[in-house]
Each structure stands twice: as structure tokens, then as C-alpha cells.
Amino acid sequence: MPNIDELKSIASQTRRDIVRMVHAVNSGHPGGSLGCTDFFVALYHEVMKPDAKNFTMDGIGEDLFFLSNGHISPVWYSVLARYGYFPVSELTTFRKLNTRLQGHPTTHEGLPGVRVASGSLGQGLSVAIGAALTKKLNNDKSLVYTLHGDGEMQEGQIWEAAMYAAANKVDNIISTIDVNGRQIDGDTDHVLNMGSLEAKWQAFGWDVMHMNGNDMQEVVNGLNKAKTLTGKGKPVMILMKTEMGAGVDFMMGSHEWHGVAPNDAQLEKALGQLEQTLGDY
Amino acid sequence: MKKTLTMSIEKVSEDKDTRSGFGAGLHELGKKNKNVVALCADLTGSLKMDAFKKEFPDRFFQVGIAEANMIGIAAGLTIGGKIPFTGTFANFSTGRVYDQIRQSVAYSDKNVKICASHAGLTLGEDGATHQILEDIGMMKMLPGMSVINPCDYNQTKEATIAIADIHGPVYLRFGRPKVPNFTGGQYPFVFGKALKFFDGTDVTIFATGHLVWKALEAKKILDEKGISAEIINIHTIKPLDVEAVIASVRKTKSVVTAEEHQMNGGLGDSIAQVLAKHFPAPIEMVAVNDSFGESGTPEQLLKKYGLDTPNIVQAAEKVIARKNAGK
User: Fold this and answer.
1) What CATH number does the domain located at B195-324 have?
2) Do residues B68 and A126 lie in contact, with contact meaning Cβ atoms separated by under 8 Å?
3) Tens-place pLDDT, residues B60-116
4) Confidence category of residue B326, pLDDT binned at 50, 70, 90
5) How many CA atoms lie within 13 A of B94 on its CB side?
């Protein structure tokens, strides 16, 4: 059984890392990063448990993760570092010249843990399907995970990929959409109402689940349940309800903190709400 | 004016389409390299991928009319060691999916081979929507992307096989019509190396793709006029064989480039850049001049848009005159 308190403790530290990273360079995307923190912590520390010390691009025999909405790089970088992919101290280089921690994730600087660049939205699902097909060709039983933003569902390539995966029974993939209902210009319902994501993904032939992405126990349970749905002829989609900015009260409840960094006073206020559990970098 | 010895390059078979060279090369690769996989966006027959599909169904992925998804899947297939070859028309292989190639393939350094048929005007009757003339430019601008535009069936087949052994993204551009087949044998494809057909002293003609045969035809006419033209095939536009370009132009001191592409961004552009930096010399470019194409037969279109044998001859005479006039 997973120690939920331990995962929550890592998540609290991750949220501190996120607000400190974006504050330090006065840029980056804290809102979605905070909302998806529990998902990332559960995925790496409890579900995938990859071998961080021996990262290979090919990842043979290992579960793979693709972040399609690359702008929430702060949460990924913090989780990768604290999981052991690279020194936690490297988080200080985020978005600075010569860093491996580019504004949006990339393989170009050789950062362990990243297997494709993302940032331009809508591409990650296709890439993940390709990786999943290679696993099938290689008779590799491990799984492929992806994360997407709900705003990203407005990109057409997502639906090309959705159609392909179902038609070709790519059933070794577990995708998750961060359903926070926000995007840069406002609420997703107002910017471009997408109707029912559940009905859409079901209609496209995916096995669709729901989970609360800001309840650690539910995230662990949800991901573990999703694993039981793989290998049955259908790709799996988790619609994960989250709150953008989760964990920092003044960042929740609107789209305003999608891509804005806190000032000094706001940073202090945010850190006051997030317990330092593993030591700041 | 001196009279030069007239020689000719012989055809080695009946005329064949370069896309069939791709299909044959891919099929052969399938047999010798189990990591080679192929993807197609509903143009399997047009791309001549049927033989591969039939013999290696598990390694063939029909993605439907969804080119963006195809490029993304190809990028993902490399993770775990596959060597994906994507196939669709050149227009849908580049312009339609530029951002996917840029981010998921080139920037991510993925070992994807983007194989593009029906490039240029010689696609013919389908018209300008499908006649892409900007693809070489788009692809050569991407850091790390190699760009190859073979000239005939044999060269396309050899290039297809060769790029499986070159790590990194490659854009392989070929075409639809049946054209003379004359390379191979003593004129092999070597990635990144210029292929010289004739030595000459008055002018160098650098040609790529379907215009290589036109350049060889022009060579015969220039011979009769007493003009000694050096004929060099640049099949690998990037990385360009800079040494071969400079060495030839040092000798001839005037240049014609010939390609089935926009003047902006094509082979001529690349040659001009090298020469401007290393050995300035007058250049004339036989290429499409900032224009879209239209419906017509390949031969009609090459003639109308100034990409025919006489255009190469005229360009050679003009550039030699410029050289002799010191401008």
C-alpha cells in the first residue's frame, strides 16, 4: 500500500519548488503546474517508478511518460529532480541561459527524463502512440502515459491521434487530461466550448475514466485502476478534474495564474501555505 | 571558342518514376533491417509502398489522412529503436506538418525519414495546390535536417537505402513522372557528396532532381556551341558538399543552378551562399521565380515556368557573358 502521507509531503515540496522557480525568473506557468502536482508525484513515485539513475532514450522495458502540455514544465522538472533524474540544485537554472531546464521541455539539452520536446500543443499524444507501437513491436509489456491540458483539446491533431489509437487498438497507453476548465484567455467554456469531453472520447472509442486530480489517494487509485484497463483493446483516457493553482489560495478560482509569476510578497504568501517537507533547493 | 569532345550519359533502363525507386529501396530495406518501419497517409499506391506493406504488414502503419499525427507517431516510433519512413506527397510532408517536424522530429533529434513524392511542377495536372515548390527551403532551414533530392530511379533507390544508416532526420524528395534512369553503377549515390558527370572549364551547372537530365541535355547543346560545361549533380542539398562546389567554381568561375523549386530557398540559394562567402562568382538560377504552378503536363509546365533544357543553355551563355564582362 502506498504511503499517501509521504506522497502528499513530496507534493507540498514540489509546489514550493514550482512557485520559487517561476518567481526566480519572473516567468513560467505556475497555475497548471500546481494543479497537476499530485498527478506527477503519484505517477513517478507510486505508479511508474522508473529507473532514474539509468535513463535511456529508448526506455526498453520501462513505463514512459510524455508531457504534451509542455508549459507546465516546472512541476515536471521538480518531480524529475526530486525523484532522482538530476540534482535538485539544478532547479535554480530554470529558464536561465545555458540551462537544461528550458522554458518548455526538450531533449535538445540532454535533460534525463525527457524523450521529446513539447510546448507547441497537440503533438504529445501522437508521439506517445508511436512509442506505444514500438513497445508492441518489441514485445515490451510496459506502458505509455501522457498528460494533456483541456485547452489543448482544441488542437486538431489530438483528434487525429484519438481516432488512430482506437482504430488500431493501441491499448498500452494511459492518457490523462488536466480538466481545470481554464486556458490563457479565460475559461475553456468561454474561449471555445468543447462540450462533453467524456462523450467525445467515448465516441472516439476510448475507455474513459474520471478522477479528482487534487486528492492524492484518488489519484493513486485512479492510475492503478487505469492500469487494469490496459491490454483490453482500447486506449485509456482519464479525465482528471483539478483546480488550477491548487495549494495556493489566491492562485485558484480563475485563469489569471496560467502563465504569471508571483512577486516577492505573493511568493511569501504562497510559501506560507505550503509546508517545506524535503528542504528547499 | 573551343570545340569540346561530345560525350553522353546513357540511360540504363526504360524511363521510370523516382517514387518507384523509393518503393523498391524501402522494400529492400525492409528485408535487411528489421528496425525499418513505414507509415503512410492514404497514399500507399502513389508512394509505391505496396511491396513493403505486403511483406511486412506488422511494420507498416496506415494512418489515414492525418499527416500531423503521422509525423508525431513516427517521432514516437524512434523511441525504442525503430527507423520510421513516412510517405505522402511533398506538400503534405512539409508545409502541412512543419510545426510537427520542427518540434517533435528536428528539435527532438528523432531518427525519422520524411519521404515525399509528387514534389514540384512535374506532379502535373493536379495543379498548384499539390505542386509544392517551397519544401526544400522549409526543410533545409531546420537545424539538423538533411535534405536529399535524387534525380532518377536508381539514385532514389540508393538514397532510400543509404539514409537508414544515417542517424537523424532526413527529408527525401522525389517525384511522380517517369523520367530517364541513368545513375547507379559508376555514378553511385554517396550521401553528402556531389556527383560529377562531366568536367568542364567554362561554366559549372549544379543541378538537382528532375533537372539533372535536363542539364545533361543542355551539356550536349553547349558542347556543340563550343562551351565546356562542368555538370555536377547535387542530390544532397544539405549538408552541401561545399568543397566540391568551391573546387569546381574556382576552375569555371561561373555558375548555373537548376532545380524544380522556388528560387527562394532552393539549391541555388545554398550554392550562392557558399560562393558569396568563399569564392564570389556570377550565378544564374534556373528555378521557379516566385510563382505558383498550375495544371498541365509535366513537360508543358517545365517549359512554361522556364525549367527546360533551353533555359539551362541560355542561363549558361548568359552567365559566361557576365563572367567575361566582369559582372
Assistant:
1) 3.40.50.920
2) yes
3) 999 999 999 999 999 999 999 999 999 999 999 999 999 999 999 999 999 999 999
4) confident
5) 28
Cell of A176: 490523462
Q: Using a CB-CB distance cutoff of 8 angstroms, which residues of chain A are in contact with residue B75?
A: 116, 126-127, 130
- Please state the domain extents for chain B: 16-179, 195-324
Q: How confident is the model at residue B195 (pLDDT cuts 50, 70, 90)?
A: very high
B16-179, CATH topology level: Rossmann fold (3.40.50)
Burial of A13 (0-12, 13-18, 19+ CB in 10 A): buried
A161 and B74 within 8 Å at the Cβ level: the answer is no
Q: Do domains B16-179 and B195-324 have the same CATH topology?
A: yes
Question: Which of B58, B60, B69 to mutate against chain A (most A CBs within 10 Å)?
Answer: B69
Q: Specify whether the CB–CB gap between A278 and A13 falls below 8 A.
A: yes
Report ipTM for this prediction: 0.97
**And the C-alpha cell for A253?**
478560482
Q: Across the interface, do A127 and B37 touch by the CB < 8 Å criterion?
A: no
Distance from CA of A129 to the nearest CA of B (A): 6
Q: Give the amino acid at B232.
A: I
Outline where chain A has alpha helix (H).
Answer: 4-25, 30-35, 37-42, 73-83, 124-137, 156-167, 188-192, 197-203, 216-229, 264-272
Chain B interface, Cβ < 8 Å to A: 37, 58-59, 61, 63-64, 66, 68-82, 84, 99-100, 102-104, 107-110
Mutation site for A-interface testing, chosen from B36, B103, B110, B167 by largest number of A Cβ within 10 Å:
B103
Give the 3-state DSSP-derived string for B222-271, with helices as H, strands as E and coil as C. Answer: HHHCCCCEEEEECCEEECCCHHHHHHHHHHHCCEEEEEEEECCCCHHHHH
pLDDT band at B7 (very low <50, low <70, confident <90, very high): low
**How many other C-beta atoms lie within 10 A of the C-beta of residue B206?**
31
Q: For residue range B201-243, list pLDDT tens digits in order.
A: 999 999 999 999 999 999 999 999 999 999 999 999 999 999 9
Percentage of chain A modeled with pLDDT above 70: 99
User: Domain A4-272: what homologous superfamily?
Assistant: Thiamin diphosphate (ThDP)-binding fold, Pyr/PP domains (3.40.50.970)
For residue A187, give the DSSP letter.
Answer: E
